[in-house]
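User: hey, got a sec? need Flavodoxin family protein folded
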Amino acid sequence: MKFFAINGSPRKVFNTAQLLDKSLEGIKSVLPEAEVERIDLYDIPFNGCKSCFACKKVNGRHYGRCVYNDDFKPILNKITQSDGLILGSPVYFGDLTGNMRCFLERFMFPFLAYSTTETVDHKRMPLAFIYTMNVSDEASFDLGYHDLFDKYESVLERLFTKPEHLYVHETYQFSDYDRYVSDIFDEKERRIIHETRFPIDLESAFKIGQNIAKRAKKD
Ligand SMILES: Cc1cc2nc3c(=O)[nH]c(=O)nc-3n(C[C@H](O)[C@H](O)[C@H](O)COP(=O)(O)O)c2cc1C
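Assistant: Yep! Here you go:
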């Protein structure tokens, strides 16, 4: 079995990446033989959907498939055949990162039939979504982030399966706060959160991985 973690952060060792790696460890704890791989979206030169509509052409050769022939195409093909996926994105300006959006356009749109009768036959693997952000739990509600996450997840549920999710708040943003102008943050408070709450978030990510593996095993 093959599982992917999709890293929507440009950073490869920070919050999102660490959580995703933990979730892959969770998968391996249930399915030691499974192949797991993290895909760093910012390593791949690719764009979102280019609106060619080849995936929706009547009797089209590429109906229900993304025809966009770029470096991302073989990777997308592997992902759509996988047995489970864990997506991870920081919040940038109240939304997912640009590359995560590009990924979702390419991943989801071909499978969305513009029809009441036609459907697209494709794999409906178990999914999870991990979101990391600067704001607190309370502020993320007030700012409407949860409505936005629900919106993405409702499309994922319709096309694949209902995603489990993890919200990670008040992340530690730099390895050394002294090197950046960041006096709106209380570094000490953030460090304490990082030392006390982030390990719990990592455990939650591990469990998310275990759940994905168990769901994949059942199918
Ligand atoms: C360009 C940019 C925009 C951001 N916008 C937001 C935002 O709107 N809301 C928020 O809570 N955090 C925001 N953040 C903070 C990140 O979401 C947060 O630090 C996240 O944990 C970073 O993930 P990473 O450590 O995996 O890279 C922003 C960070 C950057 C670099």
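Quick note: The chain has a mean pLDDT of 97. Let me know if you need anything else on Flavodoxin family protein.
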